[in-house]
Design a protein that fits this description.
The protein contains 4 helices and 4 strands, in the order αααββαββ. By secondary structure, the chain is of the alpha+beta class.
Length: 173
């Protein structure tokens, strides 16, 4: 999917996102995947312009709305998964049409998953008509509490694996 999935920039003014898109990484990551899926047999996955073409802006704006980014905190994994689920429902998909899973520490009840990330599951998720979004945390170590505390986060769209930026095979990428 490296060459065919969109690579939208969350702060692109053309997307017209809340607060200039600063907190819209989840919305844009999902939109990247939804646009690819729309081009590959899931036509209702995106919103469209009057001429029928995929509207990245309308789709990302709809995701912003369901993720409730107006809270100015961004979408943590529980609200992200629920937002994706709500968006898909609004597009006419039912839970029989898709599967949402999580891996990691923060997840809502009712979603299948595990608390320990597994790279093989990520690889499997991107194959075929799958989509994978990574929630990358930035942490600071609190010496008094002897623990890491998240200070920021960012969603990214997984587009492939096993090849470096020069086209050389590398199973660790």
């Amino acid at each position: 999917k490296v060459e065919s999935i969109p690579d939208l920039v969350q702060t692109d003014p053309a997307l017209g996102l809340l607060e200039g898109g600063v907190m819209s990484c989840g919305s844009v990551s999902a939109t990247n995947s939804f646009a690819w899926l729309a081009d590959n047999g899931f036509e209702n996955m995106v919103l469209r312009d009057e001429d029928g073409s995929v509207s990245y802006a309308k789709t990302a704006q709809a995701m912003d709305r369901v993720l409730r980014l107006a809270t100015n905190r961004g979408a943590l994994p529980p609200s992200f998964l629920r937002g994706v689920e709500r968006y898909l429902s609004e597009q006419g998909y039912t839970d029989e049409d898709y599967r949402l899973e999580f891996q990691g520490w923060s997840h809502p009840r009712g979603f299948k998953g595990t608390s320990i990330p597994n790279i093989n599951a990520v690889k499997k998720g991107i194959i075929g008509n799958g989509a994978v979004w990574l929630f990358v945390g930035f942490y600071r170590f609190d010496e008094q509490k002897d623990e890491y505390q998240i200070i920021s986060h960012h969603y990214v769209t997984v587009v492939g694996y096993g090849v470096d930026e020069h086209g050389r095979e590398d199973p660790n990428l």
